[in-house]
Predict the 3D structure of the following.
Amino acid sequence: MIRFYFHPTPNPAKVALLLEEAQLPYQVIPVDTSKGDQHKPEFREVNPNGKVPAIVDTDGPGGTEVRVFDSTAILLYLAEKTGKFLGASTDRPELLSWLMLIATGVGPFSGQAVHFQYAAPAGLDYAINRYRREAERHYRVLDRHLAGREYFIGAEYTIADMSAWGWLDRAARVLKGEDVPLAAFPNLKSWFERIDARPAVVRARAVGQDHAFKRVNDEETKRALFPSNYPDVVL
């Protein structure tokens, strides 16, 4: 059994999709990051960095219980555990390259674009422009790569597609103000629609819907999500 520590945000969504695609048994453990659950000692035992997603696999290598944190590490671990969604062995370098680009580029810059457009104080035009334009640049990189391709790696659907889907699903927030956020990236748009139509995506979207996660962006939420902005918060 896999204990899946979840909040309905892009990085946990990637893992939810793989769990559903691979049809692995799992238990959802809600981590309400707006209430600060990610900073509790019991969760820090699972992920010392205090971020979701994380998993505990009670049937790890040799029957041991193992923890895995960071969405890319989890995708690789579960794909290797099941032997699924890794593509051809000859595509491994390409798979790792795109996974890391998404992990270090698409995700962080998209997240910062969202933060500065929606959560930061007014007047930070430089930061808004910087992260929004970098997010758009990453979208162009993905769009060019997908020209004439059905998936990111070779001819197979892999964890690279799942990883990218998690963030591209939030394109409307990343590219604030765009009526059709992927209109300028036709190859990426076609790819996203193809992935988004998969039955497992419907199931992944339903993960955690039975839990009432906090939706109010009050002072408690800001202190929980952005603790480094508060000198009195020591984690």
Summary: The longest strand covers residues 2-6. The chain has two domains: 2-84+203-229, 89-197.
